[in-house]
Amino acid sequence: MANVLLAWELGLNRGHINQLLELARQLTDRGHRVALCLKERPDDLANLPWPVYQTPLPDQSELPVMDTPMLNFGGMLKYRGYENTDLLGRMIGRWLELYRETGADRVVADHAPTALLASHIAGLPAFPLGVGFHNPPDTRPMPAFRWWMPSPPRVRLREAERCVLDSVNAVAARHGAAPFEQLSALLRGQTRLLRTIPELDDYNERPNDERFFGFPLGRGNGHWPGWPKGTGPRILGYLQASYPGVNEVLTTLGRLNVRAVFYIGGGATAEQRRRWQTERLHISDKPLDLAIGSLECDLGLNYASNAFVAQMMWAGKPLLMMPPLELHLMQAKRIEHHGAGALIDPRWPPERLQQAIDNLYWEDRYRKAATHLQERLRAWPDRETIVSQMVDVIEKEG
Predict the structure, then answer these.
(1) Which domain of life is it from (predicted)?
(2) Are strands 234-240 and 259-265 parallel, antiparallel or unpaired?
(3) Domain that holds residue 108
């Protein structure tokens, strides 16, 4: 019997928790002990059957101001405090205490680089879990986030990693652990549990020996209200209230010749939902059943979250995307590269947004590209099999 700690450190939204809970259930069914370490815990998960710990996180005031763009994953770690050896050392100390308290003998790290460093120091096998963005290619230096643009000189990418690597190795040395020869080695773990397929990988290239497990799609157990009456393209939407442009795009969408059903996560209020809703735009107060919605809709609108993109591609439907963050932009550019979607600006006037919708609805090239990705995605195992294969790896290689 193994003692498995499932840890989530960085990133936003419920998807991180959901994928850890799936692993927790299968690990428990196979007789293993499980503990969770979560960045945040929604109120509806107050009574989980496993012990839950708070992820060690630095205070926001301890993190550096972002004064230059993040070129690659090393640059992102810089702005998570990784150049500050004392801060990183304190975080590692708290992770090591957590490992001792839980009795963990292996760690699954969902976008959790500090948990991976602590596992290296503690000599515990660790399994990095997540989509492509969370698991950059194992190269020196790691590639630029914006792969579709002319790459920055390698010296700039190496420089973005050098100080971070020095700090990581200094903390490792304090505990008598071996240094890393390159920063990407920090993210290798025992085996990476890469939850995507090559066509949806946020990076456009990675070494050929990297194993992909497939993208486990949602269970389809949400709410489905049906479509508003009328004519026009049926649009399925999933947005976050805290992201920029949500008010603008919904206000504009409500004036167009469409039938749309949206869910707005991230704390949208009842007053906001009332303000956005029109006869043609329904704003659900409950998470939507994307399995139904994706099959019935004509196209989707989202900020290019990996889960929503995969669900829409599984249904063979093109996407309009308004990415707010670097990881969303990377995914959006992959879909644009395949021809299965287009980027929009939420500040566009009604006539321009209507034109973008009409393009995706009427031009066959978008649907053909989405159908091609549908064929590729459906060639991979189903959700339960993917999760089971990951648990096999955790058991056998731990």
Answers:
(1) Bacteria
(2) parallel
(3) 3-214+381-397
